[in-house]
Amino acid sequence: MSPRWTPNPGVRTGRHVVHNLHIHLVFITKYRRNAITVAMLARTEEIMREVCADFEAELMQFNGAQDLVHLLVRYPPTVQLSKLVNSLKGVSSRRLRQEYDSHVRHHLWDGHFWSGSYFAGSCDGPPRTLVKQYIENQQHPA
After folding, report:
1. Residue 28: is its pLDDT beyond 60?
2. Which of 41, 42, 45, 110 lies 20 to 30 A from 65 at CA?
């Protein structure tokens, strides 16, 4: 009988899969407007943590500035990234527009919060550590 293989702490297992998938996401505001306040950044993180949990994913790192947010997400192989991104952007946009209506309308007037585009980069190991440090060092909104 061979010894049982034990995965690293960061590696997750499922019934038929062993995985350790991470994605660095960047979302920018529509027209790159400085629409995000400190309070909105904190609320955005809460919302995005909830969305990730719904997908059985984990928001490992989050930060941003007045016109963008950075996320480092660990996700299972069953998650379709485009659906996760659409939910993160859609749910956060809807809730931020509801909760900060007058502020958002002052900066963004066409019914959208996020730009239609986004950045997604896969990362693991030492590059993941560098991405986490990069996200931590992003400037907070004024």
Report:
1. yes
2. 110
Distance CA 118, CA 89 (A): 10
Residue with tokens 């502020």: 103
Tokens coding 98: 């509801």
For residue 97, the one-letter residue type is R
pLDDT digits (tens, 9 = 90+) for 97-130: 999 999 998 998 888 999 999 999 998 766 777 8
12: nearest Cα among 78, 72, 61, 71: 78
In this structure, what are the phi and psi dihedrals at residue 13, rounded to the nearest 5 degrees?
Answer: -125, 150
pTM tops 0.90: no
Structural domains of the chain, with CATH: 19-131 (3.30.70.1290)
The predicted structure's pLDDT at residue 9: 67
Cα–Cα distance measured from residue 78 to residue 99, given in angstroms and rounded to the nearest whole number: 32
Q: What residue type is assigned to position 111 of the chain?
A: G
Half-sphere exposure of 142 (CA within 13 A, CB side): 1
Helix H segments across 1-142?
38-54, 81-99, 101-107, 125-136
d(Cα 11, Cα 35) in Å, to the nearest integer?
37
